[in-house]
Structures are given as structure tokens and as C-alpha cells.
Amino acid sequence: MTCKEAERLVMPYIRDELTDEELKEFLEHMESCPGCRDELEIYFTVEVGIRQLDSETGNYNIKGALEAAIEQSRQRIQAVRLIKIARYSVTTLSVMALIITVLLQCRIWMQQGLL
Ligand SMILES: [Zn+2]
To answer: Do 66 and 41 contact (CB within 8 A), yes or no?
Structure first.
């Protein structure tokens, strides 16, 4: 992901509108690019600051809030990855079970002299 693309996704990220794929690439870019990370922090601060004006909480930790938001995003990506791995495992196991069943059946036929 380029800086321009990352910049374009800052606001959607703060509004929690990114797809899982976008989110993954966005976070990877934020980890490797201090410039965009600063940008995100500024936008996040402004956005959260505005929201805070509506609420009563006085001393809101904005930097901590961004860390928490990024941590939450990471967990979401982690969960998506786990689901993908689980799905892949189930598919693989099903195929293996099928192959083993066929092999065992062939062995039975061979023992019976049918093959
Ligand atoms: Zn960048």
C-alpha cells in the first residue's frame, strides 16, 4: 500500500468502514510508515476530540484511545485469519478423510480379489 492509498483510508478507518483486507494492509502500512502514523494520530485526535465534546468525559486519553483502536483492529484481523485457517483445515481434513476411505475400500476389494 502506498502512502497516498493509506491517506485515503484514514477517515474510513476512524469511522470503522474498512473491509478486512483494507484494514490489514492499512495497519501494516501504519506500522512501517511513521509519517502516515502521525497523520492517523492527528486525524484520530481531531475526530475523537469532536466526539468528546458531545460526551461528558473530561480527561479522555486520546493517545491511549488510538492504541486501543489499533489493538482492536489487530484482534479483528487475527480473528479473520483464524477463521480462514480453521476453514482451510476442515476442508483439508475432509479431503484426507475421503481419500483414506477410498483407499481402505480399495484394500477391501483387493482382499476380496475384486481388483
Ligand atoms: Zn505512508
So the answer is: yes
Residue type for position 15: R
What is the Å distance from ligand 1's center to 4 Cα?
7
Using only C-alpha atoms, what is the Rg of the chain?
Answer: 25
Residue 113 DSSP label: T
Q: Where are the domains of the chain?
A: 3-86
**Dist. CA 67 → ligand 1 center (Å):** 18
Report helix, strand and coil shares of the chain as percent, to nearest 5: 85, 0, 15
Query: In the chain, which ranges are continuous DSSP H helix?
Result: 3-14, 20-32, 34-54, 62-111
pLDDT tens sequence across 42-96: 998 888 777 777 666 555 677 788 888 899 999 999 898 888 899 999 999 999 9
